[in-house]
Amino acid sequence: MREYTVIYERAKDGGWGAYAPDLPGLGVVGDTREEAHRLIVEGIALHIAGLIEDGLPVPEPISYAELVTVPAA
Description:
Structural class: alpha+beta
Distance between the termini: 42 Å
Radius of gyration: 14 Å
Helix content: 25-40%
Largest sheet: 3 strands, antiparallel
Strand content: 15-25%
Number of strands: 3
Shape: flat
């Protein structure tokens, strides 16, 4: 079992994008954050299965995200 960091970004049109920094090329777009979450989880599983099937190494999860609080300007 591996845990990958996923970054969610809200689009100007209200939709959501998500990507996993440790899995280059993998990104999804959904109408809601929940849909983007479902799609990225499915995408990570498919991406890893494809790497294994092709005999390629599966990247180790090395990224992490953190919220940082700074004073308002």
